[in-house]
Amino acid sequence: MIVGVLGAGQLARMMALAGIPLGLEFIFLDPAEDACANKLGEHLHGDYNAPHLLAELAARADVVTYEFENVPADVAEFLAARTTVFPPAQALAVAQDRLIEKNFLNDLGIPTPAYAVIDNFEQLVQAMQTMAYPVILKSRTQGYDGKGQALIHSSSDLPNAWALLDGVPAIVEAFVPFKREVSIIAVRTSQGDMAFYPLSENHHRGGILRVSECKTDDPMQQQAESYISRLMDALNYVGVLALELFEIGDQLIANEFAPRVHNSGHWTIEGAQTSQFENHLRAILQLPLGVTDAVGKAAMVNFIGGLPPTEQLLTIPNVHLHLYDKELRKGRKVAHATVRTSHDHVLREVVAQLSQLAEQTDES
Q1: Most buried pick, 39, 55, 209, 339, via CB within 10 A?
Q2: pLDDT exceeding 90 applies to what percent of the chain?
Q3: Which residues 6+ apart lie within 8 Å of 76 measured at CB?
Q4: At 222, is the secondary structure helix, strand, or coil?
Q5: How many domains does one find in the chain?
Q6: 193 and 258 in a common domain
Q7: Which of 127, 157, 174 is the last residue of a domain?
Q8: What is the domain-level CATH number for residue 135?
Q9: Is residue 107 part of a domain?
Q10: Summary count for the chain: helices (H), strands (E)
Q11: The domain spanning residue 249 has which CATH number?
Q12: How far is residue 87's CA from residue 66's CA, in Å, rounded to a whole number?
């Protein structure tokens, strides 16, 4: 079986590493000449909307998937008319626009922070007559890892925030005084069968995920599963999906969803019976889903921009290092380490040690 992937970054790389033991082959379409997954399959080098490359991908791949949600939705639609594409193009279209996404979630009874549409500066000023500071101004499209966002503390911040977004269509969103940031990762087959991973508790800095910890038996697990089930059924979803959530009191409210494998699920590679990457492939190839139970205590630490010496990291017990074969660059995710152990105190100690090393080499 040949799996076509739109994108050839680290998520595509980890997908291929999970699929090769299953006898799968991979073809990646990516505009970057040095894309880090290209050593694990054939690399079609060119734009995502290049007709000849899309035609080749559709002709050769048994199924096509994608590793990030900024692939043009019309590209997925073009391919879906010629071969099998999972997740469906509708999931891309919804996730690519924050306004459409929030409306979609609210229509399903999944709460989100209060928000308003902002198409010009005057609308921003008007919206702040009914919303309380602080708020976050977010571009409707092309936002990830904290990009396309501006925190607004008072009316004096409005002009600079609007200038920062360069006048693109946006939403303004109430700032949520959350207790925790969590995410749930789930997988769904074309027959509607679902499996859920334990919640991940996530810690960000500068809009970039730094640490995710698997939380087995979390009191919010059932509520999160209810939300993501509704979302996947409404999208007729196939594959892995991640839903990012804020915990406020005894309620979860949705931040956004990602129609793909997700950074907060990297702990599943060593920390779950079946990783999110393998289960994504199982789902899109109509294979039986693997067990999603955690194996012991698990967490993940990201390395951003810089990287401690490999030898130093590998001397730490219970650590599994994943290098992405990417050139070091400020703000770029270049590696992660997962931790798996049987003891909570060991997990905390190792995560703290890794986080300190990550901060020392951080180039975000």
Answers
A1: 339
A2: 91
A3: 6, 64, 66, 85, 88, 89, 92
A4: helix
A5: 3
A6: yes
A7: 174
A8: 3.30.1490.20
A9: no
A10: 12, 18
A11: 3.30.470.20
A12: 8
Q: How far apart are CA 224 and CA 201, in angstroms?
A: 12
Residue 257: strand pairing partners: 243
Tell which of 68, 85, 102 closes a domain: 85
Q: For residue 235, give the nearest of 343, 100, 60 by alpha carbon.
A: 100
Compute the distance between CA of residue 336 and CA of residue 321 in angstroms, rounded to an integer: 6
pLDDT at residue 207, as a whole number: 84
Average pLDDT, the chain: 95
**Do residues 280 and 331 share a domain?**
yes
Tokens representing residue 234 in the block:
């409404």
Distance CA 321, CA 361 (A): 16
With a cut of 90, say whether residue 131 has pLDDT above it.
yes
Do both 308 and 337 map to the same domain? yes
How far is 237 from 92, CA to CA, in rounded Å?
A: 11
Burial of 176: CB neighbours in 10 Å, binned 0-12, 13-18, 19+: middle
- Residue 268 sits in the same domain as residue 137: no
Query: Is a pLDDT exceeding 90 seen at residue 43?
Result: yes
Where are the extended beta strands (E) located within 189-263? 194-196, 199-205, 208-215, 239-248, 251-258
The token pair at 131 is 């919303």
Please state, in angstroms and rounded to a whole number, the distance separating the CA atoms of residues 250 and 206: 27
Report the candidate in 195, 212, 194 with the shortest Cα–Cα distance to residue 203: 212
Q: What is the pLDDT of residues 251-267, one digit of tens each?
A: 999 999 999 999 999 99
Q: Report the pLDDT value the prediction gives residue 145, as an integer from 0 to 100.
A: 56
Nearest to 283 by CA among 274, 271, 295, 273: 274
**Domain around 297:** 180-360
**Residue 142 structure tokens:** 């092309």
Q: Per residue in 135-149, pLDDT tens?
A: 999 999 876 655 688
Query: What is the distance between the alpha carbons of residues 259 and 6, in angstroms, rounded to a whole number?
Result: 13
